[in-house]
Structures are given as C-alpha cells and as structure tokens.
C-alpha cells in the first residue's frame, strides 16, 4: 500500500470533481502528477511556465470544470501578475499545490529567496495559504483548500514543505582549494 501524500491529494481531487490538472514538472510532484496522468477522468496539461496553469484554471472554470495547478515554489514568482489580475479581479476559484524549496535543509542558495517569499507574496495578492509541514497534513489541507476554493470562490494554495518532499543536496562548482 502506498502511503505517499499524493494518494490523499489525488483522492481529494476526485472527490471534489477536479477534471483538469496543469503542472510544471517537478521532482516533489512526480507521484501526484503520475496519479493524475493515469486517471482517465482527469485531463493533465504540462505547462512550459507556471502562469500558463493560471490561464488553464480560469478557462476550466469558465468551461464548467474544476482545475488544480501544481508547481514548485521557484515558479510562484512567474504567476504573481496572472493571479493578481486574472484570479483576483475576475473572482473565480483557484486551487494550487506548491512544493517548497528554500526551506529546511536547502543546499542550493538560489532557491532560498523565492522559497522564503512564497507565502507572503501569495497572501499579499489575496491567496489563502495552508502550509503542510508533514505528509499527514497534506491530505486534510488539500481537502479543506479545495472546499474553500470551490465552495467559497477563493484562491487557495497548499504549500508542501521541504520537510515533506525532502531537501536536495547542491554542490557549488568550486575549484580545488577555492573558498
């Protein structure tokens, strides 16, 4: 039996009637993306950039369907204008899962600034943010977030902590003896 957090997330997508999932490939999201791709009731769309997912979610809602957008924290900066203008101004429901970098155990200094900015930036543009710090938190937060988004016409993001997805080791390109 697979007890990965993606099992619960996918189950809640199904229960909430999510029919479209937009994603930018990310290692922390791989299992959830695979589950959605294997599900004939969910149309998955791989995006070149994260803001494309915002447009897909808007189009899905206008077409009578629910969508979820999946991305890594480093891509959230690409979505700010699309969320602030399209989601907030048009006041349609929006739901995203964001896998976090730049947190606990991060070895890549390039990931830290955006990783630390994700929650405050999303909150500043009107997105309700739930931080899942354990794998057990993810399912309940996805369920609550989907309900809040699609029953309450809210913009919601569940941030899956780096403690859940694991930190990555990054080795800088240093010459021997360099500091």
Task: Describe the structure in your own words.
This protein is of the alpha/beta class and 179 residues long. It has one domain: Thiamin diphosphate (ThDP)-binding fold, Pyr/PP domains (Rossmann fold), CATH 3.40.50.970. It has helices spanning 5-16, 30-38, 50-62, 80-90, 112-124, 135-152, 162-165; strands spanning 18-23, 43-46, 66-72, 94-99, 128-132, 155-160. It has a six-stranded parallel β-sheet with strand order 2-1-3-4-6-5, sandwiched between helices. The mean pLDDT is 87. The protein is globular, with a radius of gyration of 16 Å. Helix 3 packs parallel to helix 4. Strand 3 (66-72), helix 4 and strand 4 form a beta-alpha-beta unit.
Rg computed from alpha carbons, rounded to a whole number of angstroms: 16 Å
Work out the helicity level: 40-55%
Number of strands: 6
Strand order of the largest sheet: 2-1-3-4-6-5
Q: Number of domains in the coordinates? A: 1
CATH-derived topology: Rossmann fold
**Biggest sheet record:** 6 strands, parallel
Could you give the distance between the termini? Answer: 47 Å
Shape: globular
> Order of helices and strands, N to C?
HEHEHEHEHEHEH
Structural class: alpha/beta
Q: Quote the average pLDDT.
A: 87
Strand residue content: 15-25%
